[in-house]
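Why does residue order matter? Because the sequence determines the fold. Keep that principle in mind as you read this record.
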Amino acid sequence: MSNQTASQPNSKPKQPLRPRHVPQRTCVACKRTEAKRGLVRIVRTPEGRVVIDERGKMNGRGAYLCRTQSCWAIALKRGALERGLKLQINQEDRATLAAYAASLPLSDDEEGSEGAPA
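Structure:
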């Protein structure tokens, strides 16, 4: 009896760990839902400016865009970003957003297409 209790104590079997919750957000341009970390947050600050929030922690009303030039072009051209932020974006902020968009890949295909057939 003592051998049984020493090798097999009365313990419950370990339960598998639950998967961690990953926050989901929607791109205001293409309406695709993705993990929050995969999108770029644009914030309307309390002062009324529009800034890019890479970390996703700034105070203010936010809207999310994919990390592609195509989504940024749609959002700026069609006013999706302005609707999401509930604000008219001034020319200075629009120029800042356009400059940031120019540094992004044209589409999702370019990000992971290295070595893939065209």
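DSSP finds five helices and five strands in the chain.
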